[in-house]
Amino acid sequence: MNFIRKPFGYEPIVTKEDLKKDNKKKIDKPSDWKGVLTRIWKLVDEQRFLLIIVLLMVVASSALALLGPYMIGVIIDEYITKAKFAGLAKMIGILVFVYVFLSVTMYLQSYWMIGISQQTIYRLRTGLFNHLQKLPISFFDKRQHGELMSRMTNDIENVSQTLNSSFIQVFSSILTLVGTTVVMLMLSPLLTFITLTIVPFMYFAMRWITKRTSKLFKEQQKAVGDLNGMIEETISGQRIVKAFSQESRMLEEFSVKSDRLKKTGFWALIYSGFIPKVMNLLNNVSFTLVAAAGGILAFYGYVSIGEIVIFTEYARQFTRPLNDLANQFNTVLSAIAGAERVFAIIDEKTEVDAAMDNKNYKLKGNVTFENVTFQYNQDEESPTIQHVSFHVEAGQTAALLGATGAGKTTIMQLLARFYEVNEGKILIDNIPIDKLPRQTLRSQTAFVLQDPFLFEMTVRENIRYGKLNATDEEVLEAAKEANAHEFIKKLPNGYDTVLTADGGEISQGQKQLLSIARALVADPALLLLDEATSSIDTVTELKIQEALERLMQGRTSFVIAHRLNTVQKADLVFVMEGGELVESGSQEELVKQKGRYYNMLNNSKK
Ligand SMILES: Nc1ncnc2c1ncn2[C@@H]1O[C@H](COP(=O)(O)OP(=O)(O)OP(=O)(O)O)[C@@H](O)[C@H]1O
Q1: Nearest to 565 by CA among 548, 551, 582, 583
Q2: Does some domain include residue 549?
Q3: Among 327, 328, 326, which Cα is nearest to 336's?
Q4: Number of domains into which the chain is organized
Q5: What span, in angstroms and rounded, lies between the C-alpha atoms of 270 and 147?
Q6: Which residues pair with 56 in a beta bridge?
Q7: Which residues form the ABC transmembrane type-1 domain (predicted)?
Q8: Is there a domain that residue 1 lies in?
Q9: Final residue of a structural domain among 346, 378, 397
Q10: Are residue 327 and residue 360 in the same domain, yes or no?
Q11: pLDDT of 393-435, one tens digit each?
Q12: With a 6 A CB cut-off, is 450 part of the ligand 1 pocket?
C-alpha cells in the first residue's frame, strides 16, 4: 500500500516498504569516523589561535543568550512589579548592551570560523589536486571521471559547509542546552520538568519527518544527477542526436526524468515544510503549559512572574539547539563520509621515482625491449604484451602494425612509463627505464595522438604546453614548421584565439597540426605518434605528412602507422599480433620473409 496519498495528481514517492528498506541501509556513513576527524582536526589545528578565539566567542555568546532572558525576569520582579522605576533605565541599558554584544560575538565567531574553514578547505582541495597529478595512469583507468570530479567538488564542498556552520552550531547547541537546563533547575525543578515534557514529543515528531525527508532528498538528488547526466550527454552528443533524428525520443526520456524530479521535489519540500510548523506547534504548547503551570505556582507564591517569563524564554531557547543538533547529525556524518573518500584518494600511492641519479640525463634515443611482458589487470587471463624484444637505434623510425587490440598503444604507454612492466626490461640508452626519473623521461618524449587534446586556452598557450618557457618566436617557428601557421593566421585572433575545450571550432587536421607544433616546441628525443585514421582532405594530409617528417628528423620515433607511405619510410617495421611481436625488421627483410607484412602489403595493393 502506498504511504503518501496523492494530491494534485502526483504519484506517491515513498512507500512503507521503502522506509523499511531505507532504515536498514542507513545513510552515507564513514567507516572510520575517529580517524577522519583526527585528520580534519590536524588540518584545522594549524590555525589553533583563531580557533581558540572562536571557541571563546561561542562560550561568550551562549552565556549572553542565557543572560538576556534572566535579566528580563529580574527587571520584572525587581523593578516593574516593585515600581522601582529609578534603576529601570539603567537595567534596560545593560540589557540592550547584552543583546548588542551577543550579536557582535555571534558575528565575529562566524566571521573567524568561515576564515578557518575556507583556509582548511583550500589546503584540502589543493592537497587533493596535487596528489591527483602524481597518481599513476592505472589509478585513473580504474575510476570513472565523474566519480573523481565528485570527490573534488561535492565532497569537498560538503566538508566546507559543515566546517562553516556545523562546528559552531554543535558546540553552541550543547552549551546552550546544558546552560539552560542548569539555570532552569536552579530556578524551579517543577517548571523545568514541565518544560522538558515537550522533548520526547519533539524527538518522535522530528524522527517521523526526517525519516521521510532524508529518503526524499536522496531521491531528489538522484533525480537531479540523472537529469544532469542526460542534459550533459545530450548537449555533448548533439551532433549524433540530430544525425540519427533522435530529438523526440530524447525529449520523451527527458520528460520522464524531469517529471520524476518534479514529484520528488514536491514531496521533499512538503515534508521538510512540516518541520518548522511542528516545532512551532510544540513550542506554543510548551509555552502554554509553562505559562499555565507557572501562573498557578505564582498564585501560591512558589515562583515569581519574572521567573515565569525566564522559563517561557528558556523553553523557546531549549527547542532550537535540540532541533539544530538533530539536523546537524546527518550533515556531519555525510561530511565525514565525504572527507573519508577524499582522504582515501590522498592515501593512494603516487608514482615514486626510486632513483634520481639520472635526473638531468639527456636522452639520445636508443630503445631496447628485452623480453617484456605486461598485463593491465592481474586478474586477466593472458598478458596484454608477451615476451616482446626489439632494439631501435637513436634517430630511427619504427612503424608499429597490427590489428586493433594487438598492443601497439600499450608499447607506447610502456615507453612513456605510464605503466611498469611485469617481466623483462625496457632500456633507454642502455639505462633501465625505472632508473630514469619519469619527469626526465617524459619531458624528452612527445606524444602526437590521433585525437589530440587541446585545452581551453589560446592557440599560443596550447602550443607552448610542450615547453612552458618557450618564447613567442619559438612558438611561431614551431607553428611554421608544423604547417600550422597559415591556418592560425586566419583565425579571428590569430595566435591569441581562445579555443573551446578540446578545440571544437577547428578541424581534425588542424588539431593534428597544432599537436605537431606542440611536439616541435618540446624538442623531444623520443616521439610517440599515432597516425590519424579519420579521413582528412588530401591537402591537409600532405601538410601533416610533411610536418611529421620534419618532426621525426633526428629523433627516435615510434609510429602506429595506418598509411603504407609512412610504413615504407620507416627504418624498422614491427608487426604485433595478440600482444606478441610476430615480425620485425626492415621493409626489405620483411618482404623477403613473405610473412604477415608481405600479405598486408599485397592486400593493400589489391
Ligand atoms: N587501460 C587499460 N586497462 C585494461 N586493459 C586495457 C587498457 N588499455 C588497453 N587495454 C587492453 O589491452 C589490449 C591492447 O590494447 P592497445 O590499446 O594496446 O591495442 P592497439 O593495438 O593500440 O589497438 P588500436 O589500434 O585499436 O588502438 C586490448 O585488449 C585492450 O582492451
Answers
A1: 548
A2: no
A3: 328
A4: 3
A5: 31
A6: none
A7: 52-334
A8: no
A9: 346
A10: no
A11: 999 999 999 888 889 999 999 998 999 999 999 999 999 998 8
A12: no
